[in-house]
Predict the 3D structure of the following.
Amino acid sequence: MRTLISELLFTLAAVSKLAKRGISTDEVLELPWNRYRVAANPHGPDPDRRFLIGRTYAGRFLTVAIAPTDEPTTWLVITGWGSDDSPA
């Protein structure tokens, strides 16, 4: 079943982590509008967290760690990093 993402929320800590890696919140917000994949992290501390993997409008691949909220299509951004390739 495909994970739908209609909204991404950011904490100040997440914005800071992204900025340290040269990623803007605008770039992260572009991912659900392009082809993307959501994958489980079997080795992570929280089994509900996922990886959002996709491409920005400019073609940059990103992997973003997200956590669920009470709304099934709204996710909380934890951190992110640039990716060399995307399985999306």
